[in-house]
Amino acid sequence: MLFDDGVLRDLVAHLTKLPGIGRKSAERLAMHILRADEGDVRALTKAILDVKTEIGLCSVCFNLTDVDPCRICADDNRDAGLLIVVEQPQDVVVLEKSGAVNGKYHVLHGALSPLDNVGPDELRIDELLARIDAGGIREVILATNPNREGETTAAFLADLLHQRNVEVSRIAHGVPVGSDLEYADAVTLKHSLEGRRKI
């Protein structure tokens, strides 16, 4: 078979390491690369290498960036008094796409998970506290994931932050827009009711 040995087998093996890419998708991608113009393949290869060599962490918020500080931290039009704490850089991407955020971010690079040996020292918590202690931040929004690790992390941070002179809030969790109540689980409904607001 075409993909059972040689360079195509190696390419498929590497492509299947990508998230969401199974063997069939990897084979289709390999065939696309094989048929593509050599200039396009070189451009793709260069783009992959550039990402590995030119992307680093912002020294302020620890988001991924190709400039330091990142464009969000350097943006004077953003509300510097509003800090949104997230677990991972991809969370910043999602929040930015929502268009609902005009503050700045702090990326923890994980969540507390004692079973996985992830404690406070493995996260960017000290740097978060240093930013708050430096002054100028009036509100911290804890936007960690609504799972056990994210909730544990939010509770831990809330305890630390309440000792400082900042308002602390948590993103609301609840029933997704466009879904039916009959399909929501009990925990989601509980969070929806707890996070209700007056209209």
- Level-2 CATH architecture of the largest domain: 3-Layer(aba) Sandwich
**Biggest sheet overview:** 4 strands, parallel
- Envelope shape: globular
Low-pLDDT segments, ≥5 res: none
Query: Do you know the CATH topology of the largest domain?
Result: Dna Topoisomerase Vi A Subunit, Chain: A, domain 2
* Helicity, as a percent range: 40-55%
Labels describing this entry:
about 200 residues; alpha/beta; Helicase, Ruva Protein, domain 3; Dna Topoisomerase Vi A Subunit, Chain: A, domain 2; 2 domains; four-stranded parallel beta sheet; two-stranded antiparallel ribbon; 8 helices; about 10% strand; globular
What does this protein look like?
The chain is of the alpha/beta class and 199 residues long. It has 2 domains: 6-54, Helicase, Ruva Protein, domain 3; 74-194, Dna Topoisomerase Vi A Subunit, Chain: A, domain 2 (3-Layer(aba) Sandwich), CATH 3.40.1360. The protein is built from 8 helices and 6 strands. The protein has helices spanning 6-15, 23-35, 38-54, 71-74, 89-98, 125-133, 148-161, 186-194, and strands at residues 56-57, 64-65, 82-86, 104-107, 139-142, 167-170. The strands form 2 sheets. Strands 4-3-5-6 form a 4-stranded parallel sheet. The chain has a two-stranded antiparallel sheet with strand order 1-2. The model has no long low-confidence stretch (mean pLDDT 92).
